[in-house]
Here is the input.
Amino acid sequence: MKQFLLISISVIIIGCTKSKTFILNDSGKNRYYVSKFINDIFEENQIGKSPLIVIDGIPFKYDKIKDTILLPLKKSDINSLNFLNQNSSRIIYNEKENDGAILITTRIKN
Here is the structure.
């Protein structure tokens, strides 16, 4: 019984620390382009599990409770991806933004 309880608690703790999945409005492997970038930085402890997403300088609002967030972009729309670590995002955007920020610059459409 103790082993079952220990395993259950471990699964809950690990599940709660999982980062969000950010999916692009695209198909195939391109859907996870931003998510892969975010997960790599998350694993390096540079950002938290719910980073602020900034698209062309405008913060993208999303429900931080949800595990999957659909971004209104395709991979072909993205010019560059950068990030701000937890301290930088807190200083630039808000003291409440403790999870870092992902900066997405899109291609200019004529």
